[in-house]
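Q: What changes when NDP is included in the input?
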Amino acid sequence: MPSLNDILTTMDYGPSPEATGEVSAWLKARGRFGLLIDGAMTAPGPGFATQNPATGETLAEVTQASAADVATAVAAARAAAPGWAALSGHERAKWLYAIARNLQKREAFFRVLEVLDTGKPIRETRDIDLPLAIRHFYHHAGWAELCTDDFPGHAPLGVVGAIIPWNFPLLMLAWKVAPALAAGNTVVLKPAEETPLTALAFAEMCLEIGLPPGVLNIVTGDGATGAALAASAVDKIAFTGSTEVGRSLRQATAGSGKALTLELGGKSPFLVFADADLDAAIEGVVASVWTNQGQICSAGSRIFVAETVAERFTDRLIARLDKLRLGDPLDKGTDIGAVISEAQRSRMLALVARGVAAGARLVQSTAPLPAQGSFVAPGLLLEAQPTNPCMIEEIFGPIATLATFRTPSEAVELANASRYGLAASIWSENVTLAQDVAAKLVAGTVWINSHNIFDAAAPFGGMRESGFGRESGREGLRACLRPAAPPALAEAPAPDFSAAPCPTPAQPQAIDRTAKLYIGGAQKRPDGGQSWRVTHQGREIGLAPLGGRKDIRNAVEAAHKAAGWSKMTGHARAQVLYFLAENLSLRAAEFEANLAETGHDPAEVAQTIRLAFRAAALADKIAGEVIQTKPQMLTLTRPEPWGVLGIACANVQPLLGLAALVLPAIAAGNRVVAIPAMVQPLVAADFAQVLDTSDVPGGVVNLICGPRDDLAKVLAQHDDVAALWYAGTPEGAARVERDSAANLKATWCPTGRDWAAQDMAETITQATQTKTIWVPYGM
Ligand code: NDP
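A: The predicted holo structure follows.
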């Protein structure tokens, strides 16, 4: 019998496993599962076994849904969509509330089932997965009630195809299903192959509560089932998973008109400044990389510590590492359970071995690993260089790199040196420093003195190759809705550039109508030295520059140099835009004459002036909100400009079509590289003069005339262009979406629109991406 002193020294206590009786009986009674299609479970078909990663024991057999099964499920969802959408928000709210309430009643069952299927500790399913999933349905019951008032003119998308990973199976289901249903869509969900069980239990629960047939359909299977869902007749794909599969989905859906949100991988920085509360930061690491065995997309897997406290912090962190309890995930005292599969275990260990071979020093917990099951000892990789593979690639396991920095600016530089941009945390007692750094980090979510806190009201999603679109909160709901269809205007054919290229004159000539490119605030000859003759009804109007790849590159560079525009206040940008509107007014007659000369409607000028005033008015109104999430947390959303934005205009409305995209974009703080309408590029040259006289800083707007679709491809493939808008043909839009897949650039393709009748709200929304910032408040 240990003495009291022994107990206080070791803090050991006996095992405390959660009972599995009810779940085991349920699994035994089912044995094999079919699919949820059209309000009934199908007979189980050929499929695969799902195992408990902590023991290797087979839990159940599930069906591998074929492409035909997926098509049947989508057809059921399609048939149910009009009825579901026609319900009042109040009626849909009652269904979402019923789901939330019933999930809450079965909380104990679901948390055990999730542990068995994933290997994660019961403490986490009890404290994180289930409460958050339930909260998601409650929160979205509220959104169902409010949606119509909050998003006037919007309509549901139709059928949403949701593809989810294995790390938070029920929670990811909730993230996808709750907002989609609240907004009036029906859903076909594909859970991950490794973890289908809570989705199947959820399916049973929905049948029990009598959710109308077809509103939710669940198809189990592997990647092939996911690919079949992406290829099916859904209206949106909502995906969480690897960047590689996200990229393939971008390609698969390009040009299909399907909406797409991608929540992908990350390599999030965890920044510990010299004045941080080190003990709090150490517990932050536990929550950040050792929760869920590090299998969290937002894990702070790159820890950077101020050099002056690095030794102290590292010693204490290693001591804490050794206190983590590894073992039976069902034991309430377990901190670290099993990783999802042997395949994932081998993959993460192989990557860590490469990191060690590249010079990092691995320190791991010395606690013994269980004899069976897929366990990985948590650890740290010390002394890793920025080029170490473990600093670059997602380990997706309980091992993080730890390196040092000297100054805040070096910390920011190291943090942003990643192709990802999902999340970050900042640990400092200095609020000024923390908020300054938060503003500079390229990340969809920034936590201050905290990490991995989530809430149904807080938008979550990535920047750069961590994907695009947001889930949760108002932004997540918006992503399940379609704005009112704008008035249409057919695209005009492009001029034939090959017909009459001619050298661009070096100097203006006597009666000169030779337009130039506009790059970095200066008129530039095209790099290739070629122009084309702009004609109307057989009459030559002037010469337009034929821009090329090199000109686009120069323009992107100039736009990057104009970063100061994004840092200006909305008020300062508004003043420039008002001035621009005024200068346009002064030259209205000249613009009208130029448009009339090529058969375009002179009324475009008045419309453009109005639009410029409106963009100016909105420049200082683009604001985020403070949202209610957790106690003692202030959660802020901030719409941030993309940075450098590419714009390819339609071949109609040469002045208005350019201004309708460029002005809201710059009002929101972007710098743009725009390809003006090819039918009347001389108007763009005149517009450049107005920019010049209106104090628009050089590089904020760059205008490159030329073969639009070729130039758009260069913009799509350019890694330093954050987002791309394309207003040309549907075929061109498909190409742009495909060409943007490699670097996962966000795209928006408002093709065939009449900008004269367009409300600017959608354009302004598209001009920013949301950053969510969590700040401790009232502790
Ligand atoms: P995947 O991206 O492969 O899987 C996520 C989901 O997509 C699963 O349902 C999967 O099906 C499905 N899927 C796979 N291939 C396709 C396809 N071609 N078309 C449509 N759907 C498809 O992630 P993994 O689960 O394999 O994990 C691999 C790596 O991804 C991890 O090591 C980690 O780095 C990262 N990851 C990131 C996550 C995040 O939250 N950001 C979550 C999970 C993983 P199935 O699994 O059934 O084959």
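Observations recorded in class: The two ends are 42 Å apart (CA to CA).
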